[in-house]
Structures are given as C-alpha cells and as structure tokens.
Amino acid sequence: LAHEISHILHGDGFSLDIDLIGKGHVGADGTDAKELRADREAAAFLIPPDQLSSFVEIHRPLFSKAKILEFATSLQIHPGIVVGQLQRAQAMMYTHGREMLVGIGDILKSTALTDGWRAYPGF
Length: 123
Prior knowledge:
Elements: H1 2-9, H2 33-46, H3 49-59, H4 65-75, H5 79-88, H6 105-111
C-alpha cells in the first residue's frame, strides 16, 4: 500500500503494480527509478532506514525472536514487518522467522469482491 501511495504522492499517475515479484518485477534491481523510489519509501514508511540499519549492525547474524519482538514493539509495528524487511534486505534468510509472519490472503479475500485473479469468492 505504501509503495502505491508513493507513486500517487510523486504524481507518477495511476500505476498499479501487477508483477510484485519475479522476472516481471522492476525496482529491486534498479531498472526503474520510480519503482526503486517507491520501494525505498514504502520500506521507510514503518521502519526508519537508520533504525533498521542500526538493528542489523548490532544483531547480525543472529536475529533472535526476542530482539525482533523488542524492536517491533519499540516501533509499535507487527514483528512480521521487521522480519519481512530483514529478509528483503538480505540480512535474514527467507526460511528464518517464518513463525512471526501472518498470512493475510484469506482475510483480504473474505472481504474483497475478487481475489485479484478474477475469481469471485462465494460464487
């Protein structure tokens, strides 16, 4: 959401990103300046970059669950946000910290008119 809001605030026009991961995604590899900016601003929306960098510097390579929970609590955010940003920054392997992530697909689909792939729940 913060990524898309960045596009709106910078006047990039309507830009709904469909390819969020995989070979169709741009931004993470720097190929599109607007996407890279939106990625950076979205990450900074909930965790200030200097605080994340400091956390990584102090605790790398062992990010204990207790330290992640403490950091998330200090920022008043869900620990899954911290885990996700650590993984995205390649400071933590994607196989670690999974128990702190929360699946939201079912929650979103239960209240949406479609699931994004033109499937209509309940029909």
